[in-house]
Here is the input.
Amino acid sequence: MEKGGSVPAWETRSQHASEAPALNAEELHRLRWGLGGALALVSAWGVFFLDLSGTALVPALTAIVLAALVWPAWPGRLPSWVWRLVFPALILFVAADLVLNGEPLSAMLRLNLVLMLVRAVAPRRPREDLQLVVLCLFLVVVAGVLTVAFGFVALILAFTALALTYLLTITLSTTLESEPDGAEGWTRVSWGRLLRRVRGAVDWRVVAASAGLYVLVVAVASALFLAIPRFQVENSLGFLQLKNKRSLSGFSDVVKLGDVTDIAQDTTTALRAELDDPSKVPAAPYWRMVALDEYREGTFAASRGLLRHDRRVAEGRELHGARAAAGLPVWTFYYEAGVSRYLPLTGDFARLRLREARSLVLNDRAATIALRDEPQSMFAYRVEGLELMGEREDPLLAEELRATAGTSPQRTEFPGTLLAVPAGEANAAALDGVVGEITGGARLSAAEFAAGAIAWLEARHDYSMRSSVPPGAEDVVVRWLRSREPGHCELFAGAFTLLARRAGFPTRVVTGFKGGAWNEFERYYMVRNSDAHAWCELYDERGRWLRVDATPGGAGESASGPARTGRPAEVDRSWTARFDALRMLWYRRIVNFDRVSQEELVDTLRAASRRSGAALIARIDRWGRALRDWVQQPWSFGRAAQWGGVSAACVVVAWIAWRWRALWWWRWKRRHHADPVRREAGRWLRRLASAPRSERVLAATAELERLRYGPVEGRPSALVVFRHARRARRRPE
Amino acid sequence: MGATEPVRAAVPAVADAEWHGLGRARWRRQWRRFSWQELLWGLLLPEKRQRILPTVSGMILLVLVLAIGMAAYNTGNNILFLTLALLLSSLVLSGVLAWLNFSGTEWRLRPALPFRVGQEAAVAVELRSRKRVLPTYALWFDLETRLSAAQTRLFLRRRLEVGGTDRLEWTFRPTRRGIETLELSGVGSLFPFGFLRKTMGAKVRTEVRVWPARVACHFGGAAAARFQMENEELSKPGGGSDLLGLRRYRAGDSHRHIHWKASARLRQLLVRQHAAEAAMTFALWLDSSAAIWTRPEQFELLCSFAGSLAEDLYRAGRLDSVAVDDEPALLVRRIRDVDTWLDRLAVLEPGAPGRGRRGPRVRGALLTFEPDGERGIRARLGNEIAARV
Here is the structure.
């Protein structure tokens, strides 16, 4: 197209101050393709690392998507009937998955993976690009919701960066150039060439600005996360419960000898517990979970009679206990998935608050609290006024025992199970013999018997994670009792239970965790699965359950008095603890953030602003007083001259700085923006802006604009242009 | 004469167009006269064409935000709240980037004159970036014309570098004579993520005159010669009746001037060319009285005829002056005078009937125009018909 005669030649084509090469349509398309594939891979790998179901598909998806990234031409070469078959095949796939596995959510996740694969591999237009983004987002969000894992942070941040870049590339490739529909030229662009072109096209300032904007996005998202008003609708989405995690058998209603020891081989963190007042932290608390009253052939279990006392509590967020909350510490627990449905607690409490509304199962006789369904992701709860004492009142049991005192107790029915020992003369004789050694024929109180029994066991058996029981006809625990073999906590607890029952004390086995490592970085207890433990509870003559830990090394805590507080038994300052502290931050600040936390945050901010305001006022007040004192000091000539001189010098320096500010600015700009011709042209343009619009002025303006904004190559002589501008300013007509 | 080519390529483009847009100068101006009332009213009643509408992907994003928000409140799940916050902050980022993209970018309209009915006219949108860090991407410009009712959307398909300039062009064919209003009605973009279609009213408008269409007309030189012979007394020998040579016969030439012998020899009609035919100058006088020109299409043809005839005569160096109705005659000395005549014709409307209107007192022979039947027009030189369309 021919331009108008007076349009300067330099304006007849696109002019750029810095001619950085721009990506063409094919390169943008290839970049788009690569980003889409990368987005799909990141989302799929997120599923893989978050340990969701459907992970078997991920390697296949990865291989196919990588093949499509390296050789992008082959999906387009597939015959069209293949793509037409995709939809019916997907329907068949979902139907088969539902029939075979019967889990709708898992089937949905797998369907999402397959759809993502199809979208990542099939030729895409902007509409399909958008579908891919939505599918990936759905997968990432569902993975995060189901797992509440710390890795979700990295996943969502990577996803956000990739998705925004992807969307930007889509916009640019569809707007900057026309879409190369049907053309496959972009498939011939090699990755090496594309990367070189991208490196050449992207300015470092753009990269820095993009990084800054990304940080801005994260900052704004964090602020929004804190500021979004929280109110609870009290209705959870039932389908978002993926049943892929099973509880550890050591923390269930039935525990075989060795189950708890098996758990202790695992060093992953099972529970994180923090206390609002770290000075009250117990040294080695017993996190009580399951109470088992029935014993049969090496297996402890909760009897049917005990389970009949299970009481279901409707779905809710709060549960009130027997204690008063005033002045008592508040514990917050972060309980990992796949451990147990029984909640670890140290004793009675005033109030228990759940992070999300759940159905609970209470058993007052066993003093346990369990979730109705096993948690499939981290589960947080807060307990106010948690008791750390090793004893618990149970007057009801005393009444029941008195009621059955005169009759022959049914040893298979609760509470008779609390006194049941293995049947058989040999077992009875063996137990009687040991009990006799412990008591010496005297009648001992429960506490005295416990101390004696522990001493007898420690004298005869060492502690070991690996134990062997000699063969024989008697019960397995009785055989171990009579041997001198070392044993683990379950054997010690089982042996003590049988001895105590034989001595006439109702006794039960309790499993849970003992102690844990104190994380110094975030100040909380890290309770690992390796802290799994079994101990006993002995019912004394005053109607109380006493905690008795018969395992060697636990004797110090066997007393029913208050736990030692203020100094944890084990402090962890390792890198593992540092990383675990990050996870704790994630749980504490993100996952467990609720309305109460929001109110606390507002209170904290309010208090901080008040404090800083008061400090500022106090400081100003101090300055004012100091100034007043200074002024009120007696003035002599020397003092006045001294301060007058200083003031005058300050004024002179300030004036000089102000007077020559332009010079300094000019020198700074000269160093940093060195093109005096452009600057001078800009000055002349400003001067001519107020001149009347005549031909001469317009011509001079065009020349100056050429100098000011045009490329350096081939520009006219600056001196001549400035001379024209000067002339035009003096005589516009 | 009779060629349909324009006299010259173009007259100077409109050079005094101001830069518009969201450059620093505009921000400074707005900052100086900032008022909260104006800002609030601007939010309630945005300027014309200033709107932000979600695209399909934007609608999907909004639906996603709603769904995730509902799920978040339904479950109290902070992962969903976190996702919701990220989606919302992406929207905020989208707005910030869009603002950065518009900001510092300036534009102006540069029509390449002349505009003429039936001929391609070019309008350029010139862009410049006053930014220092980020280039400008993916803008579009809505252009429209009022008189010709044409419109288009120009896309900035290259990126506009920092401190760079660019030029987008549009060509169209004006359909009507008159004053054409060219308007850059809106500037929009989908940048950066394609969620929102952001359009801002550009309010850049310029007016240009659209000259009447060019028509093919033949000016009869023989009639001029006859007119001169009948009306002028030559002061010296070798005047208007002198034979200069022979030329080809053109429609309208008198048969009396055909040189039969030479025509027979060369087997084509040749006529004698007299000196008067080449030396005579003319004055065009156009009577726009509505009483004469009762048919609008005939009046349009009159304007085209008068413009084309003036151009042809000027090119032949035989146009002395032009005039409309009672207006003073315009002496034609330079090409700019012809442009002035065409500018006048561009806005000429049928005037009030002028009784006994006589042409201006001019030096050359006076060419007048009169209807030729229902549709045609003829140019009269005294009693001779000099040309007709």
In short: The first helix of chain A runs from residue 25 to 49. Chain A touches chain B through 74 residues (CB under 8 Å). Residues 1-18 of chain A have pLDDT under 50 and may be disordered.
